């Protein structure tokens, strides 16, 4: 696969209403212009329920709890982001599209090597995520 072309797949395995076409177009444009071009060339974003994300979190992070987003850098330019749209923080937001986009950006930052395992890392990721989100025109 060429590093200059981004392959992007979005799938919704939940009953949460997500306009996949709109997000796919927007995310592709966003990624081509910004942080990911040439580093991730095949990206899947999957919307899953709380049980699925909890099972993934338990299996891969050894944390038996639900979460909002998980990212997996599969190597060779491949990445997967799992989004739990039922996470409480999303449902508290008035603009659900922005909340979802923030999680996608957060997942992308993880794919690029950012981590939030301590307060300093979390603060850095939130700041960078909000900065990138503010550049979005949803």
Describe the structure.
The structure is a single chain. With 138 residues, the chain is an alpha/beta fold. The chain has one domain (7-134): Metalloproteases ("zincins"), catalytic domain (Collagenase (Catalytic Domain), 3-Layer(aba) Sandwich). The protein contains five helices and four strands, in the order βαβαββααα. It has helices at residues 20-33, 50-61, 88-92, 96-111, 119-134, and strands at residues 7-12, 42-47, 69-75, 78-83. Helix 4 packs across helix 5. The model has no long low-confidence stretch (mean pLDDT 84).
List keywords for this structure.
4-stranded mixed beta sheet; Collagenase (Catalytic Domain); alpha/beta; 138 residues; 18% strand
Low-confidence stretches: none
Question: What is the chain-wise order of helices and strands?
Answer: EHEHEEHHH
Q: Helix fraction? A: 40-55%
Major β-sheet annotation: 4 strands, mixed
Quick take:
This protein is α/β, with parallel strands linked by helices and 138 residues long. It is 46% helix and 18% strand.
Topology:
Layout: E1 7-12, H1 20-33, E2 42-47, H2 50-61, E3 69-75, E4 78-83, H3 88-92, H4 96-111, H5 119-134
Parallel strand pairs: 1-2, 2-4
Antiparallel strand pairs: 3-4
Helix pairs in contact: 4-5
